[in-house]
Write a structure and sequence with these properties.
Elements: H1 5-10, H2 32-49, E1 53-62, E2 67-74, E3 77-85, E4 88-89, H3 92-107, H4 109-131, H5 133-136, E5 137-145, E6 148-155, H6 164-169, E7 173-179, E8 184-191, E9 196-198, E10 204-206, E11 211-220, E12 223-232, E13 235-237, E14 246-257, H7 263-272
Antiparallel strand pairs: 1-2, 1-14, 2-3, 3-4, 5-6, 6-7, 7-8, 8-11, 9-10, 10-13, 11-12, 12-14
Helix pairs in contact: 3-7
Length: 281
């Protein structure tokens, strides 16, 4: 799932877990914060129970140049193959370099451990931030459309952050869209209404107006995946290496693959099917 410190700050679907089999029946009887808490608890349990693996198309429009990749999830981590740059297929030299990169990674246990540690750290941080959602913000009903409900949120003045990331996250205003029938998050969007300074600016700052938007979709019964992520943050913060980076990423064409898929098997799929796109492309 898409990662990076900023996306961990926002919330990453790779770490959303869900209470499955808890159909929403009385959302109308819940307060907005209670509804969000139920969705969060459901999400946080579902990921523990979901061990499915997927192959999909990843299109990163920002930062430039636009890059399209095929990504395969495995039990040992994700493996990707770069397919296009600025909507053009790779040159023979670029293809050779990509094949070498994939083979080197699959043969390098140390590189795999490093990637897993980074992924696990992002997952942990994302779970932590997603978990505080019902406490860090005050939610208000905004719009109901069938099984989906939109709720606006603002910082809860009574919330006390326990980390710098929680403190920044708590400074945002925005909205969430939830599926009340399945108790799932459909979208979360936020804006940093006011700028944030750290130690009076000595440790960095985030400029006002920074935004993020994450949209999810159901790719199979009870399986939800990130479909679109946009991040537009500006500033410089010493403890975030990539703050200021902008991202615009779309994931599409999800295709279920064996749940016990290994990196070696993913390598063979990527190298033996150079032009294949996931179903639906």
């Amino acid at each position: 799932m898409l990662r990076g410190p900023i996306l961990a700050l926002v919330v990453s679907a790779a770490t959303m877990r869900a209470q499955a089999q808890n159909p929403a029946s009385n959302a109308q009887n819940l307060s907005p914060n209670e509804l969000v808490r139920r969705v969060v608890n459901h999400e946080l349990a579902a990921d523990d129970q979901d061990h499915t693996r997927w192959m999909y198309r990843d299109i990163a429009n920002v930062p430039a140049p636009c890059k399209e990749k095929t990504v395969i999830e495995t039990k040992d981590g994700d493996l990707s193959r770069l397919d296009e740059i600025d909507n053009r297929p790779l040159t023979p030299q670029q293809k050779s370099a990509e094949v070498e990169r994939i083979r080197n990674f699959v043969a390098d246990a140390s590189a795999q451990r490093k990637a897993r540690r980074a992924s696990d750290a992002d997952d942990s941080k994302s779970t932590e931030l997603f978990s505080i959602l019902p406490d860090a913000f005050t939610f208000q009903d905004a719009e109901v459309n069938g099984d989906t409900e939109k709720l606006s949120f603002h910082p809860n003045p009574g919330f006390h952050a326990h980390s710098m990331e929680e403190w920044v996250f708590h400074k945002m205003d925005g909205f969430v869209v939830v599926n009340t029938r399945e108790n799932r998050l459909v979208e979360i969007s936020g804006v940093l209404t006011n700028g944030v300074e750290f130690a009076g600016g000595l440790l960095g700052h985030l400029d006002p107006g920074g935004t993020f938007d994450v949209k999810l979709e159901e790719v199979a019964p009870d399986v939800w995946k990130i479909a679109r992520m946009k991040v537009n943050m500006h500033g410089k913060v010493l403890f975030f290496k990539t703050v200021g980076d902008q991202e615009d990423e779309t994931r599409t064409g999800f295709k279920h693959i064996p749940n016990d898929m290994t990196l070696a098997q993913a390598e063979q799929m990527l190298l033996n099917q150079p032009g294949e796109r996931p179903a639906g492309q």
